[in-house]
Write a structure and sequence with these properties.
The structure is a single chain. About 30% of the residues lie in helices and about 25% in strands. The chain has about 625 residues and is α/β, with parallel strands linked by helices. It has a seven-stranded parallel sheet with strand order 8-9-7-10-11-6-12, sandwiched between helices. A six-stranded parallel sheet has the order 13-23-22-14-21-20, sandwiched between helices. A five-stranded antiparallel sheet has the order 2-1-4-3-5. α1 crosses α2. The mean pLDDT is about 95.
Length: about 625
Amino acid sequence: METYAKIALGLPIDELFDYIVPGRLVASCKAGSRVWVPFGGRNLLGYVAGLSNKTKIKKLKEISSVVDVNPILNNRFLQLTKDVSDYYCSSWGQAIESALPVGIRKGVAVRAACEDAKSEESMLPEVTLARHDDYGESLKFCLEEIDKTIKQNKQVIVAAAEMEAALNIFDLLSAKYPDKSRLTSRKQNPKEELKIWEEALLGSIDIIVGTRAAVFAPFQKLGLVIIAQEESYGHKEEQAPYYDCRQVAIMRGSIEGARVILTAKTPSLESYYQVKQQKYAFVDLRAKQRRMPAVKLVDMKQYGNFKQKKTRVFSVVLEDRINKALANNKRVLIFINRKGFARYAYCQKCGYSFNCERCSSKLVFYRDEKKLVCPACAAKIIAPGSCPACNSQYIIYAGMGIEKAASHLHLFFPQAEICRLDKEHITVSENAGIIVATEKAFHQAVSIRAWTVAVLDSDGILNTLNFRSNEKVFSLLYKLSLLAEDELIIQTSIPEYYSERRLNKFDSDDFYDFELEERKAMKLAPFVTLAYLNLRGKSENKLKSKADYLYELLKEADKKVTVFPPVEGMPYKMRGAWRLRILLKANDAYQISKLLKKQLKNYRHSGIIVTVEMDPQ
């Protein structure tokens, strides 16, 4: 009797492929093993999802070879990746490969093998949301929970949103558990990544710290998963299957019976809602009586003439506060989360705009480098001395970036020591009177404190087409308030909006409850699930035609799923490809995923790349 293997391939094709297991390989071909198989004239690495004595396919090819005599992927791993595939509307093979290090995906042989762990009936995991105001509070709580787990002879995963935060956590854990802790990342050397993965599979280590992919670490006695700063968008994968580390942690907790701890300064609205529904436990680690800084909303409409494009960078209020702080040897932090010197450049004479040739994005001017850089694809050109259209030398660099803010500060406060804190400047002088910073201010191992903190550009977040913009601004302002000793100044052109939306009060429950009411009325997350069906292609006309056809195909296919007409992506053109997206809304992700998998199976889209992003951020 023939034996057939169900093979998952790392291709955007949502099906398992049947292959004959030749007699010489029957003993070594098992579920969870990697195999080489012929596919479309190529030899591809596949993953055995199961074996059978039956098949509906008449003409089948044989498996070429088996990589793993002993399986390296256990049933729990296969179940987890299948759940990821079903939720995030990807193929099973794509989900498997997103969870594995490069070496495993390339077929490198390993000495480790997994235990035959049987999948248990899924249950709601024990999830705890721990809110804190500083990392010390959070780390102390997490270390205590890690100690409890290790004493129970269980293993621990800690996933941070950025590598810098992961390094800080690892330094603490490795000091206490030097032989049992490892730091992992998709960006590290592939051999080192593979070595750590093998150690985890063998059970020779007990703690893995890393970024989002760490959630898939192959521990076989997992007891605890910690997602640090769960509200951070760094936990969202940027390519198919676009998984969210937080959601995968909860999936894994339900499969393996592991506890999940989510830490946050400003919890995501989704997690807050789960606490309100009593589905998550809640631990408040914040100090009971923390002194909040005074909050000053400064209406910038009173400054400058928009028609003449003359606007004031710093309000009179802010200038006065800076002068007083400097006179009293106090520090000031100016927050502006925009890179470069100017956000765009144009010719004053003819109006020519400097845009990226491959994208529909305006080029950002970096004065230090004397270059124009695309914010979408990172393409660079030397800043021209004259307009390429009319040869005029009147080039205007408009919009505010961190370099321009620092330049203005040097001009207005020549007596002060001023330093920048961003990706290119990561240290702060102890004597700095003024710090001008991007979000790098939040990534320091030791929080930077200032007497006065001012934010220049939070309106920019509110002006984006994103229903989460209020939540993002509240999170930003709350975190800035934690850095302010005396006062937080918010320069805005819409002060009444901040007051109406509770953005400047820092009463978290009040803001979250108000925002939840708004989301419920508008039928937005967390009350529904949203997804983007993204399409991109080199031909704009073909893309529009295919997108319109797909919209017509989907809009009446399932009454439980609402489908909206195609709109331009942001940016509309990126790396030479035009981009459109279709928004879908349903009560849960599985309804959307089921619809798309069914309808896209026979959808022909030569020259058009189609991807699905569930729970877009």
